[in-house]
Automatic annotation (TrEMBL):
Pfam families: PPR (PF01535), PPR_1 (PF12854), PPR_2 (PF13041), PPR_3 (PF13812). PPR repeats lie at residues 69-103, 104-134, 145-179, 195-229, 230-264, 265-299, 300-334, 335-369, 370-404, 405-439, 440-474. This is Pentacotripeptide-repeat region of PRORP domain-containing protein. Belongs to the PPR family. P subfamily. InterPro entries: PPR_rpt, TPR-like_helical_dom_sf. The keyword Aminoacyl-tRNA synthetase does not apply. Keywords: Repeat. It comes from the Eukaryota.
Length: 515
């Protein structure tokens, strides 16, 4: 057969191997296999299965220079599972360690998939528990994959083990394992229970991962199965639409919710109001605010904070002041988020003195500040060219038991750059290192702009090297400026190859843009 032209496919030899194995001629099979390998013929899965069976029966797995590794076993186990020979796959799995190998996540996952597809979901679940807890005789702990979870959940649902499926889904969520499209399909179509709490958890999980269409599909399934979604379900999906900027879809869902007899509450109204404000549609937000008040739904501090931010962003300072006064009149106590929106809004609309007055009033009231309030005010002071006052405020952070973050440092560095105080700017960078605050792309881009304005290309090159050392990705702005200016001077062209060595961020924000 070997001398035939063309040489037969390896599967033809597998028939011969099978006949020899039935008569216990294991040595002959191994010898023939070696001859075929020497002739340049590649074995197929069937022949490998036969060969492995021979070695198992001969108790000499490494004979003839054949040293299988975990990949070999993964392939063979997959082959058995594909052919529906789950018993043989399970037996082979148990012998992996005897052959000097340690099963990995793929080994476990392959067998788990095979067990589920052949209706052995209970065994698959037991194997999964061994996998994650290391309670097997091997003591091996492996991290399950998304597919592993999805396959077991799907199998459990089909077998009617809904509670087990729910537990496994929650376990998956708690471990921070993100589902892919296949997993979502299993989850969405697999759950046929009427447990609203679990379904809400799933919808929340989908929305937080940007999978709002899948979450919508989940909602439709609930309605089709006569499961009442309730206000929590609708609010979760409303928030999901707003998070991805689909405000029109959120509004349509809001209307649909009311049409189905589900009355909106302060949470659902606030979610939609916040969504409108973030999209710059403050009139729509105020209309919703009036609607909720007319229905006797009392706005909370989150509602007011969202509206304040929206009004200030639209430049409607007078309306923002009235709303803030109304908030206090209605005995809704402002929180940190409210004051961040208020102080930032005043600063960005040119009312810095009023922002400072509000800040000092809070100091006198022993208000517990957050770093964001300082960042807003320091940014406003720097942009108003009141650098000394900004520095004074910066140095007061420790008095309030606050630590500057990267945004604080970026704002201060930008302010120092604007005033040409390069020595203090460098000191601020050193202070960042001392405080363990890592500079980001905005930090470096701010510094580069200053050095480029002063025609100090060498400093720009030094910063590029520092960015590379710290694995800080340059944004498109940095790349365009550096390429443009360095390319004009042949002396520095050799440094352009630094840029492609790390990916480019799409963001083009700079210091102060955060507020």
């Amino acid at each position: 057969m070997i001398r035939m032209k063309p040489v037969p496919h390896f599967s033809s030899f597998s028939i011969l191997f099978s006949a020899l194995v039935k008569n216990s001629h294991y040595d002959t099979v191994v010898s023939l296999h070696e001859r075929l390998n020497s002739a340049g013929l590649m074995p197929d899965l069937t022949s490998l299965n036969i060969l492995l069976n021979c070695f198992c029966n001969m108790s000499r797995i490494s004979d003839g220079g054949f040293f299988p590794d975990v990949v070999t076993f993964d392939t063979l186990i997959k082959g058995f599972c594909t052919e529906g020979r789950i018993l043989e796959a399970t037996k082979l799995f148990k012998k992996v360690v005897a052959f000097g190998c340690t099963p990995n996540a793929i080994t476990y996952g392959t067998l788990i998939t095979g067990l589920c597809r052949t209706g052995n979901t209970t065994l698959a679940l037991r194997l999964h528990e061994e996998m994650v807890n290391g309670i097997n005789t091997l003591g091996v702990i492996c991290k399950p994959t998304t597919v592993t979870y999805a396959v077991i959940i799907d199998g459990l649902c089909k077998d009617g083990y809904i509670d087990k499926a729910k537990d496994l889904f929650l376990e998956m969520k708690s471990k921070g394992i993100h589902a892919n499209v296949v997993a979502y399909n299993c989850l969405v179509h697999g759950f046929c229970c009427d447990d609203v709490v679990t379904l809400n958890v799933m919808i929340d999980y989908l929305c937080k991962n940007g999978k709002v269409d899948k979450a919508s599909e989940m909602l439709e399934l609930m309605i089709q199965r006569n499961v009442d979604p309730g206000i929590v379900t609708y609010s979760t999906l409303l928030d999901g639409f707003c998070l991805v900027g689909r405000i029109d879809d959120a509004r349509n869902l809001f209307v649909s919710m009311m049409d189905k007899g589900c009355r909106p509450n302060v949470v659902s109204y606030t979610i939609l109001i916040n969504g409108y404000c973030k999209r710059g549609k403050v009139d729509e937000a105020m209309s919703l605010y009036s609607e909720m008040v007319s229905k006797g739904i009392r706005p909370n501090v989150v509602t007011y904070s969202a509206l304040l931010a929206g009004l200030f962003q639209a430049g409607r300072v007078g309306d923002a002041r009235k709303l803030f006064d109304g908030m206090k009149f209605n005995k809704v106590i402002p929180n940190s988020r409210t004051y961040v929106a208020h102080i930032d809004g005043l600063c960005k609309n040119g009312y810095l003195s009023e922002a400072l007055e509000l800040f000092h009033n809070l100091e006198n009231c022993k208000f517990k500040f957050v770093i964001e309030i300082f960042n807003c005010l320091i940014d406003g002071l720097c942009k108003a060219r009141r650098l000394e006052t900004a520095l004074e405020l910066f140095h007061k952070l420790s008095h309030h038991r606050l630590v500057p973050d990267v945004v604080t440092y970026n704002i201060m560095i930008s302010g120092l750059c604007r005033e040409g105080q390069l020595e203090k700017e460098n000191g601020m960078l050193l202070d960042m290192d001392r405080m363990g605050c890592a500079p980001n792309a905005i930090t470096f881009s701010t510094l580069m702009c200053t050095f480029l304005e002063n025609n100090d290309k060498q400093k720009v090159v030094e910063l590029l090297h520092k960015m590379k050392e710290r694995n800080v990705m340059p944004d498109a702005y940095v790349c365009s400026v550096v390429v443009d200016l360095l390319a004009k001077d042949e002396k520095y062209c050799k440094f352009l190859d630094l840029l492609p060595s790390f990916p480019i961020q799409e963001s083009t924000r700079h210091a102060g843009d955060e507020y």
